[in-house]
What does this fold into?
Amino acid sequence: MTTQQSPADQATPFVPDPQRWKILSVLLVAIFMSLVGVSIVNVAVPSIQTGLGASDSDVQWVLSGYALTFGVVLVAAGRAGDLLGRGGIFVIGIALFTLASIAAGLAPDAFWLNGARFVQGVASGLINPQGVGMIQQYFRGPERARAFGWFGTVVGVAVGVGPVIGGLLIGAGGPEIGWRLTFLVNVPVGILCLALALTWFPRPLLRRPATAADAPAVGVWRSLDPVGSLLLGLAVLATMLPFVEGGSSPWYWLTLPTGAVLAWLWVRWERHHRDSGRSPMVDLQIFAIPSFTRGTVIAMLYFLGMTSIWVLVALYFQFGHDRSALQAALVGLPAALTAAVASNWAGKRVVTHGHRVVVGGLATALVGLVSSIGVVLLADSGVVSEWWLLATLVFVGAAQGSVISPNQTLALAEVPLAYAGSSGAVMQTGQRIGTSVGIAVITSVAFAALGASGSWSTAMVTALALISVVIVVALAFAMKDGRNRA
It folds into this structure.
């Protein structure tokens, strides 16, 4: 198999940018910062409650506000990068994230902290699609696969070490200062990223859309498709809101049908916008590319299932076995390191072996899930220690490295470069929705099993079995994708 290009991309001669690996390093540092900013806060919740006197509702919004604004702006930010310059939007995102981190670290109360977290989410939504789009822009063939491999390595390390770094900072700073350090640690990293981006990124950082080169300012605005951006943003918000709120109020579920209606209106608007001769926010023709559509479904299913594992492990160790938050965080560290190695390995081989890498990764995930169920059952019987999960979860880490970035490489291989940012953002939006739905549903199933049995082991086994079913469905899609490619 070879990595394909769209006809539009083949018509344009590709000249590798000599700065492309330096550009990639800046992208990876920024994405590492934004992802650590998500996972590091999970262990800081008790300290935030103590330090600010925050209510349970306040803390819920510290966690969910970031996820909501991140998901809402992804596609619009990706399209803005495609039209106005990915480097410029990326720099704006880094500057905004750094300023929001300062505001969060110095927050005098929960209201101020939640406002800063909303802005952080917007900034991450600006940063991440530019990373995917710029990898598409500056790399081709095996180099692109390697770049996505490094991307996956950074994701694996960031997710794993974030809680550990958070635990160490809170231990060093105490309950009053420690949680503030989990935000302020982003500041020197953000400043470094800004300095390197301004040094290495090609000029101009921002440009006017080609379709509006000789048009008045309103032409530029229309080329960004503000109506489509608003409709999709509201649809994503309405879809994610009841899940990230964790069922705090039954009224939130009324937003789901509203989200479906808004999504329908968005599709109708995008078709009308395209038929009117204007550039749509997302060219819906990309869904006619089978590899992109199947890759998006695989990514959504994978995130729907697998991202819940680390929430379950933290609950199982802390409440089922009375372990500390730092001990629970350390359980995922070997898996994160394995994910980093596997991402690099898979990135070098996906061009040659194609879908087999993704299929093998999903099969490895099933091995990790089934063996983890075995460890939980044996630990409940007193045969083995729960710490054997460190070994079985390594398979989960290997799966993460072998699925996420390779699947993204294959899904975007035939997408036109003009829509690299927005199409990558569509995939990421699917991942965010899958994550929100998965965590809400699977943890609800776990708590229902806990209420019925009174046993954390039963809750863990039930949830892991449900995740296994989701991964089996994802594996079926991946195998179908392989057959169609062949």
